[in-house]
Amino acid sequence: MSFCPHSFARTAHPAVLRAQQAPTVHLHQIYPGTTGWSTGRLFMAIPYPHFIVTDNPTVDTPITVPSPSLPPLILTQDELKKVAAYKAVEFVKSGMVLGLGTGSTAKHAVDKIGQLLRQGDLKDIVGIPTSKMTHEQALSLGIPLSDLDSHPVLDLAIDGADEVDPYMNLVKGRGGSLLREKMIEGCCKKFVVVVDESKLVKHLGGSGLAMPVEIVPFCWKFTAQRLQLLFNEVGCVAKLRTCSENGQPFVTDNGNYIIDLYFEKDLGDLNAASDAILRNPGVVEHGMFLGMATTVIIAGGRGVTVKNK
């Protein structure tokens, strides 16, 4: 049994492997004419110098390029994550107690907070990390750290997400830190989620990637079978997460295992699904973050969209 911090659940359900090869689509293509993401305000970000933004834009509003001679600007997924993360850091003020998220997107936000502290632009910040990995990163940047015992209410948390639906419900935890993330982000006055547009889905589980459930190691096969049977009608497949290096079970910061659930169909009532999962005695927590996000920041080919609850 070994801990592998870089092991992520990236294997899609067999029924949706072909869908992942489809071209990337933008916000207005996912939710045309709906009240989902199209209600978010569109901001011009520094890495998008060619965009013109109207005073009251929606994602259905055409964005024009002032000069046809300028080539379109194409950013990598990691660059899009950085754009969204830096936008989220604008919410941080001196004197705040912050929840520091985990993952590739949150890492950019933590790096930026550390930079602003060194420059003196932020002062008297206290961070509460959501994982051992983030704890080590924050220490290396000189960010003062504490815990929930000392600060049971946080001013703000910034973190990424693996999926975001039109109602700002999330799937998180494909990096393995879902329990600590939910504990910390559940007691924040404001929870800002930062993603690139590839994380937007019509319903949770819609990407075909894993919805993680943290469980106790004791009789893990029994718990996995119970979870799969629970969602049999929506084509659920339950798999123990393992380390790619040695095939051993992935072990969380809390000493637990993770069962990754893959769904062929929409889960339907998410609150009912949440309650059903948590009624299993071997379950510690699941990766659905329902009604928790207060702001979602999405970076994409058309700029940065900020949606508030």
Question: How would you characterize this protein structure?
Answer:
This protein is of the alpha/beta class and 309 residues long. The protein folds into 2 domains: 14-19 and 205-286, 2-Layer Sandwich (Alpha-Beta Plaits); 23-202 and 291-308, Rossmann fold. The protein has 7 helices and 14 strands. The strands form 3 sheets. Strands 1-14-13-7-4-2-3 form a 7-stranded mixed sheet, sandwiched between helices. Strands 9-10-8-11 form a 4-stranded antiparallel sheet, with helices on one face. The radius of gyration is 20 Å and the shape is globular. The model is unreliable at 14-70 (pLDDT under 50).
CATH topology of the largest domain: Rossmann fold
Q: What overall form do the CA principal axes indicate? A: globular
The assigned structural class equals alpha/beta
In what range is the share of β-strand residues? 15-25%
Tell me which CATH architecture of the largest domain applies here.
3-Layer(aba) Sandwich
- Cα-to-Cα separation, first versus last residue: 42 Å
Low-confidence stretches: 14-70
Q: What is the level 1 CATH name of the largest domain?
A: Alpha Beta
Radius of gyration: 20 Å
Q: What order do the SSEs take from the amino end to the carboxyl end, as H and E?
A: HEHEHEHEEEHEEHEEHEEEE
Largest sheet: 7 strands, mixed
Average pLDDT rating: 83
Helix content: 10-25%
| Strand line-up in the sheet with most strands | 1-14-13-7-4-2-3
